[in-house]
Structures are given as C-alpha cells and as structure tokens.
Specification:
The chain has 161 residues and is α/β, with parallel strands linked by helices. The chain has 4 helices and 5 strands, in the order βαβαββαβα.
Amino acid sequence: MKPRVLIAGLGNAFLGDDAFGVEVARRLAEAAVPAWVQIADYGIGGMRLACDLLGGYDTTILIDVVPRGGKPGTVSLIEAGRSGGSVDAHGMRPDAVFRMLELLGGDAGEVLVVGCEPGHIGQGAELSPPVAAAVDEAVRLVADLAWGCAPENPLALTAEA
C-alpha cells in the first residue's frame, strides 16, 4: 500500500532545540504505524524531502521548531495549505522545497506544520527542558493528525504505544 501521509522530522540534532522535529519523528517511528503512514527524519535535507515528495501524498506533516515569539515549549499547529505556504524552518526553506516540487509535478497534499517554540538553538545535543517536555504533546498531536487522515481508520496513538 502506498503511504498517504508523510511525517517529516526536521532540524539539526547538534543545535539544541533545533532537534525537536528529529526527536518527535524518532519517537513516532517507535510506535505501531499504519501502512499508509511514512515517517522520516530529514534533518536539514531539503532536497531529500523534495525527492520523497515526488511520489505524492494526501497529507504532509512537517515537525520542527518554529520561532513565533511565544513561550518556549509551546506546541502549535500551522495549516500551510497545499503549497507549504511561507513557513521558514530556519534554513531548510520548505517554501522553496514545495515550489520546486510543484515545478517537478509532485504533490505534497495538504501541508501541516507541528511547530514548537524553541528555548535555545545553539551548540549542544540536548533539548532545553521546556522543549523536551513538549515532545510527548507533539507526538500525540502528530499521531492524531496522521492516523486520523484516513476516514476508514481513525486511530490515535495511545500512551502505551
């Protein structure tokens, strides 16, 4: 079965809170995932993401830190539409990836961003305490979004998963 949902963890694992998306994707990959969901850690690899998106998806969920001026650890859902909108994942430039994808005839489907307000982006391999505490919330949110994308199989990730 072709995956209908792509979950893309973004960020740099060596820059503190920038590893948020990578950590959420890692945790989701440990769960029982429906066959129609693909989870990948893209790190800072925008070209790899664009290549994978050429296969087409109904929904693409990007997970990353998204500085919006809020309290560190605040998780938000951004509906970016079908083109990725103008979300800037600090260097990966998803908007450019989605424009290139469109030019190549690919389709990311509906694009959602699960973002977390960072506390510290800089040298270090550990998440700050508020961002680390937000990982569980983001895992549940992404699972609810991804598993719920198939009306015939509206699953949610449970605490046991």
